[in-house]
Fold these 2 entries.
Entry 1:
Amino acid sequence: MTLTTARTRRAARATPPARWRGRKLQGWLYAAPTAVIVGVLFVAPLVLVVWMSLNRWPLLGQATFNAPANYLKIADNPLFVDAVLFTLKYTAITTVLLSAVALGLALLVQERRPGIAFFRTAFFLPGAVGFAAAGLLFYGMLNNDFGPIDPMLRALGVTSEPVKWIGTPNMALFSTIALVLWRFAGFNMLILLTGLQAIPTEVYEAARSDGANRLQIFTKITLPLLRPTLALMLILSVTGSLLAFDQFFVFTNGGPDNSTVSMVMVVYRDAFFRFDLGGAAALSVVLLVALVGLNTLMMRRLR
Amino acid sequence: MRRRLAGISLLGVLALTAAACGNGGGGGGGAQPADGPVTITMWTRAATQAQSERLVAEYNRTHKNQVKLTVIPTDNYQPRIAAAAGAKQLPDVFAADVIFVPNYTSQGLFMDITDRIAALPYKDKLAPSHMELGTLDERRYTLPHTLDLSVWFWNKDLYEKAGLDPEQGPKTLREFAEQATTVQEKLGKDGKVHGTFFGGNCGGCYVFTFWPSVWAAGGQVMNPEGTTSLNDQPAMTEVFKIWRELYEKKATGPTAKEEQGPTWTGFFPKGEIGVMPMPSTTLGLMPKDMKIGVTPIAGPDGGESTFVGGDSVGISATSKNADAAWDFLSWTVSDAAQVEVMAKNKDVLARIDLAANKYSAEDPRVVLINSLVAKGRTPYALRFGQTYNDPQGPWLRLAREAVFGDAAQATQLNAEVTKSLQQ
């Protein structure tokens, strides 16, 4: 009896480490495909970009080490400095408007009512249009030569002459923001909707029975409980806006007069028009570091 | 068991990595059997698509070797070449806007074909400005592929309706402005017809259509080395001024200021424009029933010149099919291809000794355009694209300020252009 107990005990002591080792290996195996993909598609290119940024990197032929020349010349690039200011301005306006519109839409379609699925789908649908295609669509719609919007506005008596939708710096910026709102409001609405639906109805009922009015319910219950979801939406919106490229590349082409050149457009220009791959890599690294810093800060503040 | 699993997973990783890397190599088509027919790859930009397609179709019809042509949107061509070069995936043969060629050769993208060209019997008869831009340190890298000259087109029907002589095009830039203004005043009331048009938000359009007026007046736009901009000098300022007046008189159509380039040649064929600078390659694409006059671009007070644009073509430095590629390239400038493919379709020829041929005589406008090849210019600058064509480059700002904004900024903006040329 004692012997058996002792043997069982020993066996019990011996088995877990073996099983753990097996499970540990299993864990590694499960993670391996993802690890390989992350390694090949993220870590390797990242290391390459950092290495490129330390070299003069011709299209063909040998690279030559020239650090930190690519970083030092960033300050001499007036286009990039302007692009930083413009992108920050664009990000601020877009994020505020996008949050407001998305939250408004989410509140509109929050409750289950007959026909609500139609509206939810309708609001989300622009999100299914490719971003470049959306840019071309707006370019066509707002074009002064063949776009249908201008003649419609004139027929309705709203305007008397063609509106230069992308002809002046401010109009180009706001036309682009309209495009981004149209394209992304529905998607952000969906994110907020999941947050709204996670708020238990009992909380609302309790508030109502305590005599809270609609405004109070919104500011004291909905917004605080929606905070984690709002934080997610904000981070997605800020990061997406700081990396803006498609909308300006397709829709305004950086014009008029370089007034809508985003940071990523400068990276693209340096790499593919000026063939300065090292310089473009340096800009990318700076952008990456700034974004990681900003996101860390936002995560902390919004937690 | 553990070892075996680890070994298997390591193998998996290796296999994946190998697969990922395997896609990277061999863009040029790989090794070919020694005798069998070879298929070579070629890229061209949409702007000169029609000419490339005709040449490739005729070559494929008459040869065992085949050419597989890929057409890339003009605006995206330079980035695509850059990306492909960086990944060592250039096609065997690629055409390029002739003004970008010096940059490409200096980046080592084209193969040295000096000796192959020297063996051609008509080596001295190839379009001179294209050959010049394809030469670096006395080595030759490209052949002329297509020629696209800027000329003035006028719409004879609109001239007649406006009370102008339909057979007399403008002889000076001032006459051009007067005639455009007349068309605008007589026919432009309902906003459908305009005196003239130009790509006001398109750097490449400005150089192609405005610079010939400077050359015609005996002026220069850059020093011969392409390192100093002279675009703040009186010859250029005068040309800008005349166009500025046309815009202020609203004779240029309301969207000229926003025109980014892709559609700038689209209004003339619709019969909406009285007179405007156009690329010669569009002559063959005009509506058959449209009566069009063609005349050289002139300076403010006369003279004539043209911007000899178009494409050059070369073998990429990474091609593994150089012999097959040269067989195709040398054929494109042969008598057979030049006369029976290019001249037959009213295109400007890549060889000056064939300017008078059995097809050109049918249309005096084609003879005129062919004769301009010798008078025209193709400006040389290593940093041409990023300075003049790039929408974010300094030239577009200069031109737009000069035509639509504050012309007094020309000197300061010209310094920016020079700075970009010297980068």
Note: Chain B has a mean pLDDT of 89.
Entry 2:
Amino acid sequence: MRRAINFLRDEPLVHFLVAGALVLFVNHFWISQFRQENRTREVVVSIDDQNRLAEIWRMQWGQSPSASEMEGLLASEVREQILYREAIALGLDKGDVIIRRRLVQKYNFLNENIANYIEPSQDELRSYFEQSAEDYRVPSKFTFSHIYFSPDTNSDPYARARAELAWLQAQDPIPVRAPEHGDEFPLQIDWSAAGLDQLQREFGKLFTDALSQSDLHNWQGPILSGLGVHLVYITARENSRKPDFGEVRDDVLRDFMYERSQLATERAYEDILTKYAVRIEGDQERVHDE
Amino acid sequence: MRIRSNLIACFITVGTLLPQYVNADSVAAADPSAKARMQAYFGELHIHSGWSDDAYLNGVPPVPEDAYRYNTGQAIRHANGEMIQARQPLDFMALTDHAESMGFTHLYFDPNHPLYATKLGEVLRGPNGSREYWGYMNKARLDPDAFPNPPQSLMNRTLRTNWQHYIDLAERYYRPGEFTTFVAYEWSALPAFQNLHRNVIFRGIDVPEMPFSSLDSMNPEALWDWMEKARSQGSDLLAIPHNSNLSNGLMFPLEKHDGNAIDKAYAEQRMRNEPLVEITQIKGTSETHFSLSPLDEWADFEILETLIAQHDKISEPKGSYVRDAYLSGLKLEENGNSNPYKFGLIGSSDGHNASSPVDEDSYHGKMGMLDGTPELRRGGNAMHPVSAAYSASGLAGVWAKENTREAIFGALRRKETFATTGTRIKVRFFGSWGFPEDMLNQREWVNTAYSQGVSMGSDLPARRSENKSPTFAIWALKDPASNWLQRAQIIKGWIEDGESREEVYDVICSDDLNPDPQTHRCPDNGAQVNLETCDFSKDLGDVVLKGIWTDPDFNIGHQAFYYLRILENPTCRWSTWEANRNGWDLMSNVPPTIQERAWSSPIWYVPQE
């Protein structure tokens, strides 16, 4: 409760709105004498509203509000609703940049916060996974040996690779690895079930693009990498595959929660946008009308 | 709350159900062939999100998770509205938001949060809010009655909640073997705009209830006291200073904070807590300054001279640069103290867009809309004239057995690390009293190097009487996505007759060239850059630079350090890429090209009594 009081005492927006409400009250008192108006206006704090207030409190303080804290929350909610409505009715929201910005900020926070803390159902998560399954693909894996021809030497690495390829193909049987051939490679010669993403870090994209196009059980090349020229012999390839939901559930949940909080603000805005006709004045007037 | 803790619990299990990674680093330490199998991993130990005040107030969204998204390869939204995505994911990361404003700033705008109703909230939401905020923060230190901070209990409650969020995020994105995350934060002391900032990195998730910030103390020694207390309570952590270049000589001082001379206790405490320094980042490179190293032709690299937010004040170079600190450390040791400056090196970006903008061809600025467009970076922001001098730099390299918290933290602790300007050059550096001349031609040479010598970050083994000069093994492999390597240099510093001395030796030249034995310089390899297209020479430079080097000027009585510097052939600087893309003239106040580079942690020689 003290928090609510401090808030009201220190908050200039509240001062502003109270002053506005006073103007309205005086206005209403006098005018209604003449108009004989007598309608009751209702302020409703629904169960959903109450849950929302309690949830926001929990997010901030890690525990549910006590009875007296809840009372304070409700009191400030009621007051805020009344003052807000009156201020809007008076047109106080129009033309004041600061107020406008604050209303917008408040709206954004409401949507983001709520979105962040509601866990999706299994079905919801699974359907999100199905829709974005491409993002979770397990990259292809390659088991291969290669022969490296360094551009650091004086002789043309391409020519040497081509000569080596001819030699290899003339052997019977054709060797599946030749670690003593070519130049010393600064990393490994033999790679076992190495993911395309890892290979791209070590060799560069030129190499992995070519590797993806290469046949199995045959010396292929010359292939260019960020480090030189290669002949490769692939003995196994696991194609890129869609993982089972269970394998990536943690990632999916993480991404779902992130994406939803990102989208909440955007979607709330788009929802509101449909209620408005937007006109941007200028030489060529652009009209967005839903 | 229940929903949330279930969520956290399910994330935590991912990290804990992997017993095979436990004590990974101690395995590597025991067995030389296990050491030889260690891999180079590249990471970022200094990145900010919109939960840092300076970032948020420049328009960066208050979403710390974006930093993890960016460095695992996802696209995120820049403050300028465009999507940004890393060229390649990183192997490890520490999100280091400022502890002083950790997730607070956006709450001053949130009517549902009690911070909204504070005096500071009111100031911040005013028409000139973000500018007045900084003045308020400074005045709050001097006159807390007139400029009250939010109530301490409220600050603490908020900080505890937010700190927990950082721990949750680090857990959520940790994938042992694929992507390592560290709980971390930045201690942001800036007395009179002199930068003393440190990033505090935790090995695991056993962390104190709240971080220790510069609001608690501006004295680094108080930070170390707090770190040691945390260690005694089960945390494992280290601090990494950065932007020593902007410290006005305070980062590597000869006096303690209280003005007394540095003593053994200070040196030992500093080394227990600060085994590393960030040598390069967006706000300049802190290796050395041309006034300190006038004979080093590469000492003018990406120098930023003006203090943070004081663009008319020059930071004093003495005491502000890494090489100078190494020399001071030797001197202190020679004078009977212990050496407080025996640190290893890493690079990191200090990007404030929840990103690591370390590639020249896709640099997108440091801090939201402060420098968020090519026009602003070119000098379009009168409030912030130094944007053009900012660098697209750097990265941290480590040698570790696997990509886990234990293994990577172990590498940081033993200083088996190197720094790069954003390129992914892999660097090995070993010292001994006699590596075989042809060692690097053996396939298993790394085994030999580990069993007969020491790796970067260590002291040379004890010298025996028959040992004449130390020998060093040098190995560097180019980044497959960057330029060819031009030369390997060893920078040696030593103390002779009480005087600091330094020498830059080119030790391996590309293209079968040899260093001149008198000048210690490689001949020019002739590599060129086309400034209009940014194409560079394709047939000059090497894939691998490697060799054995023996110090030709060794004196058994002189304390010394040796570190490695690897230079690529020149490439376009980010400012040149942007000028070309927009059809602008090249800027005259920054160089059109740079030589991307890497630095190893040093190896030290300490004479026996």
Note: Chain A touches chain B through 50 residues (CB under 8 Å).
